[in-house]
Specification:
By secondary structure, the protein is α/β, with parallel strands linked by helices. The protein has a domain at 5-154 and 182-212 and 251-263: Rossmann fold (3-Layer(aba) Sandwich), CATH 3.40.50. It has nine helices and twelve strands. The chain has helices at residues 14-22, 41-51, 65-68, 72-92, 125-140, 160-166, 186-196, 215-226, 265-275; strands at 5-9, 27-31, 55-58, 97-102, 144-149, 152-153, 172-176, 180-181, 184-185, 203-206, 213-214, 231-235. The strands form four sheets. The chain has a six-stranded parallel sheet, sandwiched between helices. Strands 6-9 form a two-stranded parallel sheet. A two-stranded parallel ribbon has the order 7-12. It is globular, with a radius of gyration of 18 Å. The structure holds NADP nicotinamide-adenine-dinucleotide phosphate (NAP). NADP nicotinamide-adenine-dinucleotide phosphate binds at residues 9-10, 12-16, 32-33, 36-39, 59-63, 78, 82, 100, 102, 130, 149-152, 157.
């Protein structure tokens, strides 16, 4: 597709930052909630008419998975109403919308990786609100890409690798080893998105770090890549209860164009650790 000017919403988040770095050769307007609250339709319309982008990349979302259980309204505002507003407003001016979703739309009951045609069945309010957002995008603008990703992390973001590396100063860390997913380094996702936009094969895509692992093995890989000796103890989910239920097995795979597959998740670990400036223990 011929794209010169992009609007990135949720630009201060992990993915927003990675997309800005990826599309540095484009004319990019990068706005977060202070400049544009996607929950307000008239603001979205006004912003699009003012900016006149060729495409919108929506990296904005309410991502506090556990808080969503008790704050339904905030979750649906950010994850369903916001995407609905963007879909309507982009459709009105005839431009495509790229929207991001999550492995949490699945219930995790499968024993093989989830592809794009598997049936969602979210367990949590966050997952339900994200699925509602996907449906609104599908209804509101036929020229859409919905990109489902998983276990996203980026230098400086609020994410598992940063937390677990900081915890490495403890004698031992206890990490869940019965939940499986596809760790995704945000710059790898942003690269794959730019390849996706070379075509106009609109639809839903799974783009996540290739392969799957548990939080426990993810931790071991992060520590090993950083030369950290801290003992890692595997524990079941039942020993680390959280308000929002997580899918037990939500490894993502794609049946779509294999040329846009992300590198193996282990490469994400290597690239992230190479950038990490935290304490080396
Ligand atoms: N993080 C993961 O592990 C993960 C996994 C799978 C899929 N995803 C999906 O990937 C996408 C990006 O996630 P991320 O980790 O980059 O999220 P993030 O770091 O939490 O960034 C989201 C950004 O959107 C902003 N925002 C929230 N509500 C908004 C609104 N109404 N209008 C405009 N901006 C708003 C947030 O601002 P505040 O910080 O001020 O709220 C934040 O800057 C989301 O669609 C998410 O559901 C994430």
């Amino acid at each position: 597709m011929n794209i010169h000017k992009l609007l990135i919403t949720g630009a201060q988040g992990q993915l927003g930052q990675a997309l800005q770095a990826q599309f540095v050769d484009h004319e990019v307007v990068a706005w977060d909630i202070q400049e544009l609250d996607i929950g307000q339709l008239e603001h979205v319309r006004k912003a699009l008419n003012h900016i006149r982008p060729d495409m919108v990349l929506n990296a904005a979302a309410f991502t506090q998975v556990d808080q969503a259980e008790t704050n339904h309204e905030a979750a649906y505002r950010g994850n369903a109403l916001g995407p609905r507003n963007l879909a309507l407003a982009t459709n009105e001016i005839g431009i495509p919308l790229v929207h991001f979703s999550t492995d949490y739309v699945f219930d995790g009951q499968q024993s093989r990786p989830y592809h794009e045609f598997d049936r969602p069945n979210p367990l949590s309010v966050y997952g339900q609100s994200k699925l509602a957002g996907e449906e609104e995008v599908q209804k509101g603008n036929p020229r859409h890409f919905i990109v489902r990703t998983s276990w996203l992390y980026q230098l400086g973001g609020k994410n598992f690798p940063q937390t677990i590396l900081r915890l490495a100063n403890q004698k031992q860390v206890r990490v869940v080893n019965d939940q499986f997913g596809s760790p995704t380094f945000a710059p790898h996702l942003a690269q794959a998105v730019s390849r996706l936009l070379e075509s106009d094969a609109f639809g839903t895509y799974h783009l996540a770090g290739s392969g799957g692992t548990s939080w426990y093995d993810f931790t071991k890989a992060l520590y090993q890549a950083r030369g950290i000796q801290t003992a890692v103890m595997p524990i079941p989910t039942s020993e680390y209860p959280l308000p929002a239920p997580r899918p037990g097995y939500a490894v993502l795979t794609s049946l779509q164009d294999p040329s846009i597959t992300l590198p193996p998740w282990e490469e994400g670990v290597r690239d992230f650790v190479a950038q990490w400036k935290g304490p080396n223990l």
